Model the fold of this input.
Amino acid sequence: MRFAMQRQQRVVAIHDISCFGRCSLTVALPIISSAGIECSVIPTAVLSTHTGGFTGFTYRDLTEDITPIVDHWKTLDLRFDGIYTGFLGSFEQIDIVSDTFDRLRDEGTLIVVDPVMADNGRLYSIFPENFPTGMRKICSKADVIIPNITEACLLLGEKYVEGPYTKEYIEGLLRKLSAMGPKKVILTGVFFDTEKLGAAAYDAETDRTDYAFRDCIPGYYHGTGDVFGSATVTALISGKSLAEANRIAVNFTVDSILRTRDAKTDIRFGVDFESGIPKLLRALGIRR
Done:
């Protein structure tokens, strides 16, 4: 008797590498790979540490290497089930990544964009004021985008509004973001009161919004957006619905924060997501 071997799924993560401080590729690669998904990478830059709270870090820009990597891959006739992008440091990188979408995607490729550029009502200081116009370009090509509320407002050209929010406001943002091109949107940093914090997932094909919340944890923890995005991509590529992926990502991220808080780890070092991978796999229905 012959058994058909199932083809292993493959995702390419296009992010920078912070050699210390868990974020970007050092988060995406282990989380996605843990689910049995091959995770290829296109590094956009290499830093000794991330930039949140550290000084004196090294930085090497790899913009010129992206296109040659893709050129070589095209000679290998590679197929990708997903393309996942995070922090992009310039308009040039945005243009190159936009072109990379066109070159690497096929009918079955899921493109997920985390438009990393702002938080807490402000654009990151390294970006010019017109940077959101570039992010809109690649968001329009995505199947799924994962902005926080600040990034959502910048993408839409709207003034940032502080929470707590109403469902009408959140669902209005979601529909307007989807109208830019992506059929699915997950909006992070959603809260309707001071007790619960989470994310809202909108599917334009069903016009349905689903929410996932956990107890609010005071403080700011570096790298949690990358943990959330990577868990979302992993769940979607593993066959979970948008609502399921959102719930899994919220739980995985919050549990990682709680472990880090309880261990009193320096928040600059990122959150302990590694210890939560077995629970993540169970949530995905994967048995090891």
